């Protein structure tokens, strides 16, 4: 089994490593993944304000036409004081806007949305 989380795919390597009947699961973010944080960091119209994974899904389906997609979406409360840690564990903190957030703005982030798709295929 290969499990790929939020990273670019190397389909040639997947096919080389995966044995017959082996499973590949690729986890990708959907449009509402960490949306509260993105909307705190970016303005409408800026590059990271919205997210679209349709090209990633299309490419996966080109390589694995018999694949399945399972969507998972939920919200959870961020424990007090862990907002900065949440920001730092995402690539969103790399941008200029992340550095402009005040502690008060970050503390307003009390819930976060996890919205992902599992792209699943089995090598035959």
Automatic annotation (TrEMBL):
Lineage: Bacteria, Bacillati, Bacillota, Bacilli, Lactobacillales
Species for this entry: Limosilactobacillus caviae
InterPro entries xrefs: SAM-dependent_MTases_sf
Gene3D superfamilies named among the record's database cross-references: Vaccinia Virus protein VP39 (3.40.50.150)
Name used for this protein in its record: Methyltransferase
